[in-house]
Amino acid sequence: MGKLNQVIAIEKGVKARVQSEVTELYKVAQKPDLFNGFTKTYTKKDEDGEDFPPERKKVQFIAVDVLRKAQRSLTELMEVVARKDWTNATASASIVINDTVLLRNVPIPYLLFLEKQLTDLRTMITALPLLDEGDEWARDENSGLSRTEAIQTHRTKKVQRPIVLLAPTTEHPGQAQLITEDVVVGYWNLTKQSGAMSKPDKENLLTKLETLLKGVKEAREAANMQDEAAAPEVGKAIFGFLLS
């Protein structure tokens, strides 16, 4: 293990980089369109009908993957700051969640830092888009996306045909008129795809985060009433709980 001054020397650079990475992820979380996509195929009704190429919009981000990237960045920052604070502090308290000790003997400075990181993480999770509740979604384990059943719609084409207004006789020619009709010429099959989260999953995640924040705040208050150890794997413990 390094010296305290070595940890302090690298902390600033790590913090600046991680904050930049998480800021970019937060910007992504604010753009629901990046989490949505679709595949669309066309089937013509008749052999002599017009063909149309399939259409596709690729899902660029999956909500859970955004959280995993945030996990990697924040875990690095959490570990660096933990090494400094566990060495630099004396007063500490354990973070207890539902009578289970999540982290033991956490120093006051680190409790303050952790509270800030979790508050910022809550802001990002809150911004993550939800699946459209107007559609029925199913999990596609191969792609990691949610998808709907294919919905078929028809494509029409305007076709003119004559109608007889007056039948011809031996004395007079007949009269006819062209009318325009919409004729079905093919079918679109639309399957929606999305990397957004379901409402229950998001609510469950935010509930866990609120429980975790409450435990951190209670530990901070307890540490203020108390009089150094190797830092634990903080990121593993935090995200192991959030993403379990």
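Second entry:
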Amino acid sequence: MGVRTYLMAILALVGLSLPVYSQTTLEWKFKVGEKYFVEETQDMKQTVSVIGKDIKQTVKTTTITSYTVKNIDGNGVTLEMKFESIQAKSEGDMPADGLDKLQDKMVGATFTLTLDKGKLTRFQGFKDFVKRLTDEDEEVGKVLKMFLTEETLKKGIEANFTLLPTTPVKKGDTWKREQNIPLGPLGNLKATNDYTFQGQEQDGAVVSFKGTMAFVPPTKDGGGEALFKVVKSNLKSDDARGSFVFDVEKGRMVRNSTSMTVRGSMTIEVMNNELEMEMSMELSTKSRVLSKNPKVN
């Protein structure tokens, strides 16, 4: 046996004796008729400085949304999403008289969506949602749709289903996700998150992330017939972070937590007058997935 052949044989034996680091496949799994609930609590603390005055506001919102699997075929999985309950409490300098009425109108709103490999390919219910919130008042509906567009809602929902890696991972593996969410006259929200697989815990696989986020002003015609126009903005967050736990066996999220601080300035134009605002916002969100509605005894 030559030296080269002998060395190759030794290396092969060494390779066989090395420990194999198991990989984990993180993927969504759905069963027709299955229903689960997502309880999300969001805390926001905001300060807006304009014309030498600080306007402070805190808002705590708890939302329960249900998802029911309606169909699975070659086009993907079809889900029914429903707002089961919304509770919001606001304190501060900004009026919130219509907050209770708005959240009451949202309860019961239903959307039908089809997901194919994590991408939202079909979305129904937005028009009825706008009618529900505006009592079919067309003028109020126009104003609402400037800020809450169908594309904004779709991208926000889709983002929840595109967090996972596309290939099996082992502890320490990383992957990146970029999101671009349109915000009507406010421009676009661009976010980049770097995810790291931390391994398995008792109740699921743990993934942590760090990210950045920035608001990009709209193009010259991007604001349409908006009540105001964003001239420039440097609002951004460099400290977005969080983690989530994913149940590999069930193929669904267990819990999720995120936090970030958004700071910067924004200049808007209203009736040909420019107004500059300094803004600071602390935002934290926690959610959990449950088999039963936590509001029902």
